[in-house]
Amino acid sequence: MSNTYDYVIVGAGFSGLVLAERLGSKGHRCLVIEKRDHIGGNCHDRTDRNGLLYHVYGPHYFRTNSEQVRTYLSRFTEWREVQYRAQVFTRNRFWSFPVNLATYRQLSDNAQATESDFKRYLAENVVPIASPANSKEAILASVGEELYDLFFKGYTSKQWGRPAEALDPSVCRRIPWRSTVDERYFLDEFQALPKHGYHTLFDRLFDASGADLRLETDYREILPYLRFRHLIYTGPIDEYFGHCYGHLPYRTVRFELEERSVRHTANGFLQPALQINYPGSEPFTRTVELKHITGQVSAYSNLVREFSEEYRAGKNDPYYPVPGQESAALIERYRELTVRETGVTFIGRLAQYRYLNMDQIVGAALHTFDKLEAAPPTPGLVTPMRNIARVQVA
Ligand code: FAD
Ligand code: UDP
């Protein structure tokens, strides 16, 4: 393996691999460095002991309204179009979710309730807040306090380790609500899983890149020995700068895989829907049974159960940036440092510290590629140590 590259890319998630493929297609020599023992980042999936697919780092429901992203990814995968369905388990029963007319019929104990009844309920219950300042206000302003208490209050504080008041409105606004009977989790035009799993998609993407790959390697171990024109960094932004301004908050998740026989169940499944959310006192937030959407037929099934925890650098992995007042000032300070860090592109959910979905990540990587091609890094190999910033703070 050479030690001279046009681009060194830190992280083999969607951001890193899309850029590797695009840059490779233009003849640029790339090295991808990944500290885990596999490519695909948090979207990685694999099969369990019974040959059933599961998502190793939590459910990854691909959906998009972007024709560009769909067309691009379709070069590396066929699709299995699906509808993602979730329910909430609380007060000893399963509820239709996200909030829709079916939920209201359960709440009002009236199976005949109409859309106008539900709209009347909303008109009476919604709290008039013109510009919600946080996630609690965002939900109060859309469906009111009763539904907030039932579905959002407990789940959000369990998931984030903070109350909804401490989070940007955008966090809970990810969940749409509607006044008709519509139990889809998302409304995006295209909702599908890669037909042969994300791992196959990533294998094809990586093969097409022609890049070199170093797995199980922290980039800081080998960067001093490499020569390259430009660094693409997709890891945590505060870690890149040696936490010089302090640690940004992230949430991590502990995932428990449970493989079980379904021989004695009525319909071959362990739970009534793909995903069950638990806003109550259970120590976990949700359980996912992927078999509901893979179409796999088996006498077995599996559940992945999620336990949300606070991230500790060096102890577990950061999964979710925490959007809110607590991180707002600190992330701006780190972003200012990135501007000065010429020779490095910061991209991805951790490097940009943004709660981004896969399609947004792929779209951003395609856009970044266009920018890099329009204004290529200055010719001449840079001294790599310059890129391992250790900013001195007075
Ligand atoms: P990542 O996938 O995080 O990749 C970054 C890579 O960099 C990692 O593999 C990491 O190991 C590596 N790395 C970090 N530091 C170093 C280092 N020092 N040296 C070497 N390598 C390093 N999106 C959806 O669209 N739909 C969903 O349903 C969905 N569900 C999600 C559920 C969970 C629990 C989580 C956490 C995310 C979910 N997402 C979902 C978001 C999705 O995971 C991200 O959009 C996507 O993975 C971001 O890709 P990325 O390349 O930016 O980052
Ligand atoms: N949420 C909630 N109750 C639910 C589902 C979601 O309160 O039953 C809130 C919670 O704060 C969560 C956010 O809405 O973090 C976004 O939910 P989503 O399902 O998009 O979470 P993700 O899949 O990104 O973990």
Word description of this protein:
The protein is α/β, with parallel strands linked by helices and 394 residues long. The strands form four sheets. Strands 8-7-13-14-15-12-16 form a seven-stranded mixed sheet. Strands 10-2-1-11-17 form a five-stranded parallel sheet, with helices on one face. Strands 5-9-6 form a three-stranded antiparallel sheet. A hairpin with an 8-residue loop joins strand 13 and strand 14. The radius of gyration is 23 Å and the shape is globular. The C terminus is likely disordered. Bound molecules: flavin-adenine dinucleotide and uridine-5'-diphosphate. The site of uridine-5'-diphosphate has 13 residues, from helix 6 and helix 7.
Shape: globular
Hetero ligands: flavin-adenine dinucleotide, uridine-5'-diphosphate
Rounded to an integer in angstroms, the radius of gyration calculated over CA atoms is 23 Å
CATH topology group of the domain at 4-81 and 193-247 and 321-374: Rossmann fold
Q: Tally the helices: what do you get?
A: 13
What is the name of the CATH architecture of the domain at 4-81 and 193-247 and 321-374? 3-Layer(aba) Sandwich
Uncertain stretches of 5 or more adjacent residues: 383-394
**How much β-strand is present in the residues?**
15-25%
User: How many β-strand runs?
Assistant: 17
Broad CATH class of the domain at 4-81 and 193-247 and 321-374: Alpha Beta
Oligomer: single chain
Sheet having the most strands? 7 strands, mixed
User: How far do the termini sit from each other?
Assistant: 41 Å
Side by side, the strands of the main sheet go 8-7-13-14-15-12-16
Helix fraction, binned, reads 25-40%
